Structure formats: structure tokens, C-alpha cells
Amino acid sequence: MRTIFWEDNLVKMIDQRRLPNALEILTCRTHIKVAHAITDMAIRGAPAIGVAAAFGLALAAQNSPAQTPAELRKELELASTLLKSARPTAVNLAWAVDKVLRFTFSESESLSTEALRGRVLTEAQRLADEDVEINKRMAEHGSTLIADGDTVIHHCNTGALAAVDWGTALGVIRMAHEQGKRVHVLVDETRPRLQGARLTAWELKQYGIPYEIISDNAAGHFLKTRQAQKVFFGADRVAANGDVANKIGTYMLALAAHDNDVPAYAVVPTSTIDLSLATGDLIPIEERTPEEVLGLQFNGERVAPANAKARNPAFDVTPNRLISAIITENGIVRPPYEVNLRKVKEVI
Ligand code: MRU
């Protein structure tokens, strides 16, 4: 099953807030509901929220009472602004929205309002299909880096749930497994929202890949004691110099890997590379509600004292010097990233 799909003129998605305890489908009838689903993390993961926003635009076009192309364009631009503001860090969101708008209105002078509505859905559907194909290509490239018998540490959820299918870093691991390599995964639980313990573990179970969940702060121990040979994660945005913004905790994991000469790989579609930002310092970092940190329970009771305060950055930036290679659908990129990311992004 795909994480997100268009069916009966509606957008449907796996509600990731309910996993692993229930596999429920959330139905969205309006682009506003799609924007909420992204903000509330019913759907999350950089490629998945890009495709969700694209389908959101298709709903906006379908529901719009516009009588003329100009009216439709105005409405879609408003919908785009809303969808793009749902989450700030993953560049795929704005990338997908802009791509749909560009396709819909390029060389469109002779097209009717109805034909333009159709174009929005066509492009959203194409982006969804392309996402799966791109992820498989990344998985093929990345799987060459995994040796038979490897134990790898994986952070956050980067699998099918974070995309339309297959995903990024977890797709690489899944491909290696399907190629017959024995691979064991140490799954960072990924505080505070536990995407690893809830979603990655659920996916690995479906694929029959052996895994163990570890607390995030155990990763350094496994690297230092040579119990893990590689580290894999995805990214929400990669700057032109190869700095990688990804789920909070990635930086500490990459530091520990580097200190122990263990390679750390970022797996990203080229749509996640943002050449307009020279360094990772310029990437906007989402700060989410403190309740995600404070709401943790132990023995059925909240851990934090009443009225405790918390900080909750959802992402951090790992400097390029800690990244051994960046795996894309167009190949494996190694330093110097300033030069080589541009090359891989420009492949047609
Ligand atoms: O806050 P999330 O769950 O959307 O964060 C997701 C990640 O950090 C992933 O690692 C990232 O999107 C890349 S994998 C598709």
C-alpha cells in the first residue's frame, strides 16, 4: 500500500499518528485538511509531505468555483501559500507545490479552466509515481554500500511511510535485504516523537528485517564498541555545501560515527538538495510544541514536573565534514560537495 494516494477524488493517507497500534486511513476532502495533516504529522517525512501538498493543490483545484484561468490561478496561489507554511524545514514541500504550479500554468494560454484543473491532478499524480521510482534508484545505489553481515544504525523513520513507497535510508536497507544480504538494524527510537521506535520498527517487521530498538543515547556505545559498521539517515534539506538538516539527534549520531571512523551516509532525492542555501546555517529549523517533550510518560505518569518548560527543535544540522557520502537517485556523491552536489542535481 502507498503511504498517500488519490482515490474517489479524495486524498487518502496512512495516519502515522496511530501506528504501530492501528493502521488507519485518513481522508482529506480539502487542501486545508491536508495542510493540517502535515502540521499535525498524520503524514510526515520530507518526500511524503511534498506529495501530500501536491495532492492538496489538486483538491484545491477540484473544489474551486473559479470560472476563469486567472481566478483559478489566484486560488491555487493562496492554497500554495497555506500548504507551504505547514512545516518549514523540508524543502520538498515548497519544491512540489512550485512544480505543480509551474506545470499547470506553463504554455497554458489556450487551455480552459477545466483543462487546468486536470493538469494539477496529472502533475500531482506524476510526482507521486516518480517518488517511488526515484526511491528505488536511490536504494539500488545505496545498497552497494552495505556488506553482507553489516549492522547499521538508523535514525528517525525514512522508509515507505516517509515517502510514497520505499523511502530513502530505510529503502537502501530494504534493498540490501531483498538482495539477500544479512543486515541487522539498530533503530534509534528518535525522541521526542519516537518515529524510530513506532514507525521504523513497524516497517522493519513488515519486511522481515531483524532489528533492535535502542535509545538514542546508546548509539555512541554501539559505535565505539564496533557493534555497528555503518550509519544511515535521510534529510529534510541539504545545503549547497553538503550540510544536512535532518531529525533532531542526527548531528550527535554523526559526531559519534565520525569519532569512531564509522561511515555516516545521508540518503536524499535530489529534490531535497537546496542549492539556493550556501550552508546549513541558513536552513530554517522547525521548533515544535514543548508538549512533545514534556508529555512522555513512565509507569503511566508524566515524567516532567508540573509546569516544567522544554525546548523542542525538530531538526538539527550536521556539518558536511561528518557526512561520508550523500546517496541520490543520480548516484553517490562524495566531497567536495560544493562541486559534486551541483553536478548530481543538474543531471536531466
Ligand atoms: O519530523 P519528521 O518525522 O517529518 O522528520 C522526518 C525526518 O527527519 C526524516 O529523516 C527525513 O524526512 C528524511 S527521510 C524521508
Q: What can be said about this structure in brief?
A:
This protein is an alpha/beta fold. It is 41% helix and 17% strand.
Tell me the overall shape. Answer: globular
CATH topology of the largest domain: Rossmann fold
The unreliable regions are none
Our measurement of the CA-to-CA distance between the termini, rounded to an integer number of angstroms, reads 29 Å
Key words describing this protein structure:
348 residues; alpha/beta; Rossmann fold; four-stranded mixed sheet; 11 helices; globular; binds 5-S-methyl-1-O-phosphono-5-thio-D-ribulose
Would you give an account of this structure?
The protein is an alpha/beta fold. It has two domains: 4-134, translation initiation factor eif-2b, domain 1 (Four Helix Bundle (Hemerythrin (Met), subunit A), Up-down Bundle), CATH 1.20.120; 137-345, Translation initiation factor eif-2b, domain 2 (Rossmann fold, 3-Layer(aba) Sandwich). 41% of the residues lie in helices and 17% in strands. It is built from eleven helices and 16 strands. It has helices at residues 31-39, 46-63, 69-84, 91-105, 113-143, 169-178, 195-207, 219-224, 250-259, 291-294, 337-346; strands at 4-7, 10-14, 25-28, 151-154, 184-188, 211-214, 230-233, 237-239, 244-247, 264-267, 273-274, 297-298, 301-302, 315-318, 325-328, 331-333. Strands 6-5-4-7-10-15-16 form a seven-stranded mixed sheet, with helices on both faces. It has a four-stranded mixed sheet with strand order 11-8-9-14, covered by helices on one side. A three-stranded antiparallel sheet has the order 1-2-3, covered by helices on one side. A hairpin with a 4-residue loop joins strand 8 and strand 9 (244-247). Helix 1 (31-39) packs parallel to helix 3 (69-84) and helix 2 packs parallel to helix 4 (91-105). Residues 44-47, 90, 156, 158, 162-163, 167-168, 195, 233-236, 246-247, 314 line the site of 5-S-methyl-1-O-phosphono-5-thio-D-ribulose.
